[in-house]
């Protein structure tokens, strides 16, 4: 444990005793002379420790700022990539500093003090060395500094389809956010010269977001950890693994989670009943029916008095490939723009997190037309990571895998966020979709 953490732990114990004495007095019990003397002593010790912590933190920041490599030619387990400049590092790419922090902590077996020394001696970025020196342990692992957490959330944007389509990210203050939404617009009318102006106004409701805990487990090869400083591509791999795992979880829950228990509510369950439409059956379907149905989905939002900004489709690749294969009577592609990822003038987002085994026969899916500018992700910047080289996890096929047997280290990432729309009318869902089921 670092000196800063040790001092903070001692101060926390003293604070507990101080609070106990204060509660006695607040409850109407008069403190004895001995208790008053004890309170004064504890108060002095608390203030002295606070000063020590301040000096220790400043010393660690100075040590991190002056860190240099032990050997200019050092390469290997803890050294920076070739071309790395001590004290700066390739921190421009989103998530790189977070990846370096994760790898060093994993290499040190979660020991923060050892990881900080490795960062200093290996010549990593001063930001990484200082973060490892001053970071505090949380309930489920190590709390990631907010500037690093912000970077990894930015790295999620190209990985999470829901984010990539234009969903807005907003901070959750103290884990909560309340956003007013308009449910009825002001009515403007023309009047005569001697006619009273009618009283009218907007009607509002609230969308309330509260932090929900999401966890992702990322297996990292111990070979990658052991060669941490040899190639800058290692950082890209770690960032990508973190972002993909978290992005898949977000897409699954922001799309279809039902909001029960600790889950956020996804678009499927935010959608109003009149905007949930059964798709035409594939039996006897024609291009005209497809056009009318999809145009009707678009019309629902176009007539909802919302700004048509960042609208798009969200579907499983099965539906996309089926639409791509459609031909008109002359053999031409019915929707040629689909080759550019567009359908009926709007971009398409593809996600395997939308199931294709819905319905009684297990062959149905859904697809969505959404005004993503009205979708919100409330972000709590408290990102927590923890490590294990002995735990087991389930792979994509549902098989249990031993990290110890595979020579891997598991990184558990815990994030807190919530999802909701500013206007529920901005979500239209096609259900009972069997399009492409026979492909």
TrEMBL record:
Annotated localization: Virion
Lineage: Bacteria, Pseudomonadati, Pseudomonadota, Gammaproteobacteria, Pseudomonadales
Superkingdom of this protein's organism: Bacteria
Low complexity bias locations: 64-74
Region: Disordered, residue numbers: 64-93
Domain (Phage capsid-like C-terminal) ranges: 140-430
One Pfam family this sequence matches: Phage_capsid
Protein name stated in the entry: Phage major capsid protein
